[in-house]
Design a protein that fits this description.
Blueprint: E1 17-23, H1 28-34, H2 48-61, E2 70-80, E3 84-87, E4 91-97, E5 106-112, H3 115-127, E6 132-135, H4 144-153, E7 161-167, H5 169-172, H6 175-196, E8 199-204, H7 231-245, H8 249-262, H9 271-278, E9 287-294, E10 297-304
Parallel strand pairs: 1-8, 2-7, 2-8, 3-6
Antiparallel strand pairs: 1-10, 4-5, 9-10
Helix pairs in contact: 3-6, 6-9, 7-8, 8-9
The structure holds (3E)-3-iminooxepin-2(3H)-one and fe (ii) ion.
Residues 27-28, 207, 212, 266, 294-295, 297 line the site of (3E)-3-iminooxepin-2(3H)-one.
Length: 319
């Protein structure tokens, strides 16, 4: 694959910053529906409301003032039992097949990793009491949560990434222990970005409500089958989106343990908590770019821009 030259490398002396933090769900169906050249499966489209959301997010990030050097992604489908792991090899190239949906997602990936930044986050996380580890296996099969989120935001892969695993601490200990660890990991991430001098784009790769169908239609992209599974799941999705749009980042973080339990949410992977912590619990509104269900799960594309000069947010007029 031909790549554009890197935007720029570390600028010594300049403080790094987060250009945007985004909730970027990764159902493999969204990549399948886009028919990119990297994916072997072909589709007739589908899930347009979410894919239009990604189109709007890409458009927002394409503004000249929003250029970034590196993408950091936290994924639910790279699960680690002991500690928080980081991709630690400069380049990965292989095929990733979704274990549940091999009919939809067989993706040829080929991308660079910002190992230096990953190592610094791991170091700072360890100093805050977290177990952290660099993943040095060059043949590692990158998970579809990492790939789908990065692809949908930046399909050319012309920027290096920092890939962060999902430590199963919410499941092995409790939601509260999970939240504490993600608070620490988010702070370590922010501090490392600032020290690096780089402009960073952060992606939290999880769905919100996550109760899903157990039978696939004959045509997976047949949208006559697609809807929320249960009214309570919809109410939680709308509540979480409302808090984000109202600039209530701390309340959203604090309510995630309830959301996880009551909406069987994939937020138990810690992605959204990590993001909110790295953004220092935004008290400014997020832009909602799109929302929709995939096999019944609730998926919102949200963007927080910490810079008031570049922030563009649609006013919330509906309750
Ligand atoms: O991993 C997923 C997901 N989070 C939501 C919907 C469909 C498939 O896979
Ligand atoms: Fe998932």
């Amino acid at each position: 694959m031909t790549r554009k030259p890197r935007a720029r490398t570390t600028t010594k002396g300049e403080r790094g910053r987060i250009v945007a933090g985004c909730l970027t769900p990764h159902p493999p169906h969204l990549v399948y529906a886009d028919n990119p050249k990297q994916n072997e499966a072909r589709s007739e489209g589908g899930w347009e409301t979410i894919r239009w959301g990604y189109e709007r997010l890409r458009h927002s990030l394409a503004r000249a003032t929003r250029d970034y050097d590196v993408i950091l992604v936290h994924s639910p489908h790279w699960r680690t039992r002991v500690g928080h792991h980081f991709l630690g090899v400069p380049h990965f190239k292989s095929l990733s097949v979704d274990p549940i949906f091999p009919n939809l997602f067989r993706y040829n990936f080929d991308f660079d990793v910002d190992v230096e930044l990953a190592e610094d986050i791991a170091r700072r996380g360890a100093k805050k009491g977290l177990t952290t580890k660099m993943m040095r296996n060059p043949d590692y099969r990158i998970d579809y949560g990492t790939i789908a989120a990065c692809h949908l935001v930046n399909p050319t892969w012309d920027k290096p990434i920092v890939g962060i695993s999902s430590c199963r601490v919410y499941n092995d200990y409790s939601n509260e222990v999970g939240q504490e660890q993600m608070r620490a990991l988010g702070a370590a991430t922010r501090e490392a970005i600032e020290a690096s001098g780089k402009r960073a784009l952060l992606l939290a790769s999880n769905s919100i409500s996550h109760r899903h169908f157990t039978r696939e239609p004959n045509v997976p992209e047949d949208m006559s089958h697609e809807h929320i599974y249960h009214h309570g799941q919809h109410l939680w999705d709308m509540h979480a989106i409302g808090l984000a749009r109202d600039g209530k980042g701390r309340q959203l973080f604090d309510e995630l343990p309830d959301l996880i339990d009551q909406a069987t949410s994939e937020a138990d992977a810690g992605c959204l908590s990590w993001l909110l912590s790295a953004l220092d619990f935004p008290n400014y509104p997020a832009e909602l770019h799109g929302y929709g269900t995939v096999i019944g799960t609730g998926n919102a594309v949200l963007e927080w821009d910490p810079n008031p000069k570049t922030r563009q947010v649609t006013p919330r007029l509906m309750t």
